[in-house]
Amino acid sequence: MSQFVKQKAFGQNFLVNDSIIGRIIDSIDHSLSQYPVKQMFEIGPGLGALTRPWTERHPELPLTLIEKDREIAEKWKTTTIPQLTLRLEDAVDTDYHSLFRSEPVGLFSNLPYSVGTRIFTKLAEHPHEIKFMVLMFQKEVAERILLKPKTVGSLGIWSQNVWDIEKVLLVPPSAFKPKPKIDSLVIKCIPRPQARIPQTQSSEAHKKLWQDLLKLAFSHRRKMLRSIFNDHALWKSGLTDSKVPETLRAEALTWEHWSALFQSCAKHWDLQ
Prior knowledge:
The chain is α/β, with parallel strands linked by helices. It has two domains: 14-191, 3-Layer(aba) Sandwich (Rossmann fold), CATH 3.40.50; 198-270, Helicase, Ruva Protein, domain 3 (Orthogonal Bundle), CATH 1.10.8. It contains eleven helices and nine strands.
């Protein structure tokens, strides 16, 4: 595999900096020590920058690779690492509910820039099956998930309602081949014992309502909630009854505001 060179596959840039690789592996190791699992998954192993050092440290721990690129997958099929299982499939379309059904798992990935957010949102729907995730994104996306100032949006609020998320490591373009034009950021995601707003997870219908609320609230970032919600009877009634200041913008809401707003909207929705 070390002699196999592929410039890009599905938006993926390959790690080549040993120091960065070591620090990411250390973070995965630390997560594993805190949240032991019997099965690990890696999405997009590429040429094995993370895969090989990980398996060297944990030769007895099963690791399933999910790889879309058929050419790369063929190379992995010839590996002599006994603990590996390969799934040739698109991580965007993977049925994670079926994949994780047996027991809690750990997961790591250098996510492809082009579909990283789509893969993450599918994974983040499984806080009961995934004990921890160590994931690399382009910096801009990671900062939205981390709710950095001036990046607050629906993705970060939705994620951090259910997950505790922290920054691990900033990764410069020089750590990759080919070099991307932007920085990357590694984050760690640990499922919360309970959602910040438990009612949002009480049923599939309420999960959908929560997503719809966030989508609407952030649909016009510069507008006040009053201006956004006024054209929608359900949401307008929910906002009024929630006592959340109607002149606020969505990015300024606290978790207490979100909880009051969701509970009020859910009450009106349940009465429909």
